[in-house]
Design goal:
Blueprint lengths: L21 H12 L11 E2 L8 H4 L2 E7 L1 H12 L19 E6 L5 E4 L5 H14 L14 E2 L23 E4 L8 E2 H8 L2 E5 L22 H11 L7 E7 L5 E4 L10 E7 L2 E6 L7 E5 L4 E4 L7 E7 L21 E7 L4
Parallel strand pairs: 1-13
Antiparallel strand pairs: 2-3, 3-4, 4-14, 5-6, 6-7, 8-9, 9-16, 10-15, 11-14, 11-16, 12-13, 12-15
Helix pairs in contact: 3-4, 3-6
The structure holds 2-oxoglutaric acid (AKG) and fe (ii) ion (FE2).
């Protein structure tokens, strides 16, 4: 991948509050309403899976770099460590020993996709780290901490006795901070619908739209194994310091926005696991808006101009989670979810 040399400077942080342009909002709304059955016939939808890239996109996508497969496999093996289980490979065929291609799309310069980057066993290991280990650690805040006391005292984060919200009785209740505003919430309902994001490492303040200040040195440590995974694959692009893990169910959306609170122009790296999603991305002054179907295991990179692009998730496609993953960790939970890990560098 070419190194970021002509990176435009970050827009002012005040731009985080700006309204998205009409041309982005319209595409977002159109694809929010699209039927899943119509998508394979849509030549304007970029899709590296299914029937493959459409004629329309073939001329707009080019391969701009590669990751040496042997190197990636070492990184995956290191990440999975002792946790690799016999269920890991899920009966998948071995991949041929060729390098992994990185594709850039001409509509949004710097926007790159690596289809099917993460093998099934790495996807499961990453879910385990995020949802069994990091979610049990009260330092990594979630959307629910703003309104509820989470029963962390019932969980254990020690590797020998690790237990998670998936392991405790699902009828356990989260007590609201303000009982006038919220009713108690069961762990079952939390995991099924209400848990929408968790922040890792530098804790983003969603109200003030700010990260912790570098000088204060107060940031929560970013999980070292996840950092090694990202650096092993994208070391010339980003130093992972913060991440948002988004959890979506069919019917959930993410509105058009730009990620402009970071004081670094390093790329954003985004990994997706579970159900497919539609992803919209476009620049402020461009009528060319790209819509892509993101599948489980895909990596997306927003670098250079695309780093400050508007983007959104208008739709999660129900019943599209790969079969080998649908019952993770039990009872079809991932079959009803998409988990995204959006990794950021806060400062240079
Ligand atoms: O879920 C996604 O693919 C995008 C998430 C995103 O844009 C964000 O967390 O800022
Ligand atoms: Fe974003």
């Amino acid at each position: 991948m070419p190194k970021s040399n002509s990176v435009p400077p970050p827009p002012p942080v005040s731009h985080a509050h700006r309204a998205p342009p009409v041309h982005i909002r319209e595409v977002h709304k159109k694809y929010q309403k699209a039927s899943i059955a119509s998508l394979p016939r849509d030549e304007f939808l970029l899709d590296f899976g299914g029937n493959g890239v459409s004629e329309y996109h073939k001329t707009r996508v080019r391969d701009v770099g590669r990751i040496v497969r042997a190197r990636a496999e070492n990184v995956f093996r290191d990440f999975e460590g002792g946790q690799k289980t016999q269920e890991g490979a899920g009966g998948e065929e071995e991949s041929p020993l060729d390098d992994i291609l990185i594709y850039e799309h001409s509509s949004v310069p710097g926007f790159c996709v690596i289809p099917s980057l993460l093998p099934p066993s790495t996807q499961k290991s990453l879910l385990h780290r995020l949802l069994f280990r990091d979610l049990s650690n009260p330092q990594h805040k979630t959307n629910l901490n703003l309104h509820y006391n989470l029963p962390y005292s019932l969980l254990s984060t020690s590797p020998e006795t690790l237990s998670s919200f998936f392991d405790i009785p699902q009828t356990t209740f989260l007590e609201p901070l303000d009982p006038e505003c919220h009713k108690p919430l069961s762990v079952e309902r939390m995991l099924e619908k209400k848990l929408r994001w968790m922040t890792l490492g530098g804790q983003y303040d969603w109200t003030r739209k700010e990260y912790p200040e570098k000088e204060k040195g107060e940031e929560v440590v970013f999980p070292q194994d996840v950092a090694r995974l990202i650096m092993g694959l994208f070391s010339n692009k980003i130093i992972p310091q913060a991440a948002i893990s988004n959890l979506y169910s069919p019917g959930d959306t993410l509105s058009p926005h730009r990620d402009v609170s970071e004081s670094s122009a390093a790329a954003l790296v985004s990994l997706s696991i579970g159900c497919d999603a539609l992803f919209v991305i476009g620049l402020d002054d461009s009528s060319e808006v790209l819509v892509m179907r993101i599948r489980s295991g895909d990596a997306v990179i927003m670098d250079r101009e695309s780093r400050w692009a508007w983007h959104s998730v208008p739709k999660i496609l129900a019943e599209t989670c790969p079969g080998w993953l649908a019952d993770w960790p039990a009872d079809g939970w991932m079959g009803r979810k998409r988990v995204n890990l959006n990794v950021r560098q806060m400062w240079d």
